[in-house]
């Protein structure tokens, strides 16, 4: 039995029809680019380097995966930047936020251990174990840990989204995009950000609750008090 051949899509035959098709395609392209444009507008003057970021009490480091229980190279670069800021007295406390949804996967504790090995006292590190995505981390930083101003640390392909979402969550933010090798992971991350921009815009508009909110925690307040 021969299956019928699928019909090829036919282009409009009239000039008006072709013009309408082009306009529809252009409109879709504009809509697809709006979230990315929003992120660039919101974060235009909020990106810095470790050399020129304003002194801020709290730095937020976002999780970026573990390799055999240790921070991945991408995450290690983020943590190195946080440790550098601490050693230079540019920050006082580091909030590490990541995924601990499974017993055998604990990003915040791995991040804490890495930072202590690189000169940041354990008392100056606060762990957020429910930073399941960027929006959750930003909302929890504000609502659970009471952070209203922070330096955010991530890779360049992610930092604009992080700053835009934390600004929307009520955290006045400066972002540091650390350098990264342009490998497969980097290209994947950059491509993923194009798609993630749409979700980020929806999060900023509708402001959903994080997957887990929970009670307020005094970790950041206590760590700042110990620094004085």
UniProtKB/TrEMBL annotation:
Q: Out of the domains of life, which is the source?
A: Bacteria
Entry keyword set: Membrane, Transmembrane, Transmembrane helix
- Pfam families found in the cross-reference section: DUF218
InterPro entries the record matches:
Cell_Envelope_Assoc, DUF218
The residue ranges of the DUF218 domain are: 58-173
Can you tell me where the transmembrane regions are?
21-41
- Asked if the Swiss-Prot or TrEMBL record annotates the protein with the keyword NAD, the reply is no
List the PANTHER family hit by this protein, alphabetically: INNER MEMBRANE PROTEIN, PROBABLE PERMEASE, INTEGRAL MEMBRANE PROTEIN
| The protein, known as | YdcF family protein
């Amino acid at each position: 039995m021969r299956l019928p051949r699928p019909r090829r899509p036919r282009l409009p035959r009239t000039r008006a029809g072709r013009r309408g098709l082009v306009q529809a395609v252009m409109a879709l392209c504009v809509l697809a680019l709006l979230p990315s444009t929003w992120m660039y507008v919101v974060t235009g003057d909020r990106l810095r380097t470790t050399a020129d970021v304003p002194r801020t009490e709290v730095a937020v480091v976002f999780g970026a995966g573990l390799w055999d229980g240790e921070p991945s190279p991408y995450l290690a670069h983020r943590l190195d930047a946080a440790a550098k800021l601490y050693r230079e007295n540019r920050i006082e406390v580091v909030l590490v936020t990541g995924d601990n949804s499974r017993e055998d996967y604990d990003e915040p504790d791995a991040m804490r251990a890495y930072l202590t090995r690189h000169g940041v006292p354990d008392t100056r590190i606060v762990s957020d174990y429910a930073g399941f995505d960027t929006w959750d981390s930003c909302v929890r930083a504000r609502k659970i840990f009471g952070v209203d101003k922070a330096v955010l640390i991530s890779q360049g392909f992610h930092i604009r989204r992080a700053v835009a979402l934390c600004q929307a969550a009520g955290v006045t933010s400066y972002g540091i995009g650390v350098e990264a090798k342009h490998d497969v992971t980097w290209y994947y991350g950059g491509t993923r950000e194009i798609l993630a921009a749409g979700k980020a815009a929806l999060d900023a508009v509708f402001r959903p609750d994080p997957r887990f909110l929970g009670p307020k925690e005094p970790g950041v307040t206590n760590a700042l008090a110990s620094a004085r």
